[in-house]
Amino acid sequence: MAKPIAPTPVLKGQAAIDFIQELSQNKKASEEETIRINKGAERINAMIF
User: Is the pTM of this model over 0.90?
Assistant: First the structure.
């Protein structure tokens, strides 16, 4: 039987502020990573269809 998953603790104080700031930053994937992801998606689509 699987172990129960504990609830995620609530972020408070500076940890919450840091988390929100981290989420608000727009991070773009590098062109190499985008190409790698697209090639993987094409392979998956080829297997499905």
Answer: no
CA distances from 48 to 2, 20, 39, 42 (A): 31, 38, 14, 10
Rounded CA-CA distance 47/49 in Å is: 6
Q: How confident is the model over 1-44, as pLDDT tens digits?
A: 889 999 999 999 999 999 999 989 888 889 999 999 999 999 99
Q: Are 37 and 29 in contact (CB under 8 A)?
A: yes
**Do 10 and 2 form a contact (C-beta atoms < 8 A)?**
no
Contact 19, 11 (CB under 8 A): yes
